[in-house]
Description:
Helix content: under 10%
Shape: elongated
Radius of gyration: 20 Å
CATH topology of the largest domain: Lipocalin
Structural class: mainly beta
CATH architecture of the largest domain: Beta Barrel
Strand content: over 45%
Strand order of the largest sheet: 13-14-15-16-17
Number of helices: 1
Order of helices and strands: EEEEEEEEHEEEEEEEEE
Oligomer: single chain
Distance between the termini: 32 Å
Amino acid sequence: LEKMTDLVAVWEVALSDGVHKIEFEHGTTSGKRVVYVDGKEEIRKEWMFKLVGKETFTVGASKTKATINIDAVSGFAYEYTLEINGKSLKKHMENRLKTTNTWILTLGGTDYRVVLEKDTMDVWCNGEKMETAGEFVEDGTETHFTVGDHSCCIKAVSSGKRKEGIIHTLIVDDREIPEAVE
């Protein structure tokens, strides 16, 4: 395996199916461009005469569109920015805070990352979309699923305040799991 000598940027991108590592190599003398997603080579271009531009690829199970922009700053200095679904990484992360809830927990020595997509009510656990059963209850809704042999439930209850909206709580084996901040 050839050493990543031209590694110029590394990003961590949180998606519903997991946190993905994106690495970018840019050989400014050879014109080489290589994109790795989770250690796997996605794009390799040798001898590009144009040193600026963009590389577009997909990330994760949902094939989320990602673009690396290569811009000349001054002389032989370059700036690399990552866009996810056409938004800057910062905007993508801010948007995820509004549209998803994430919980990190350990059950029987195994780490789990549970993600609720609030718009679709899809539940992901360690990269897999879960089979769920939803039901209406007195104070809101409950979405039931299992992780291993553990019964899990995401309760959705109105906060009673318009600005806060709905509060989602993960309960595993009758124990409330605090939300994670990624």
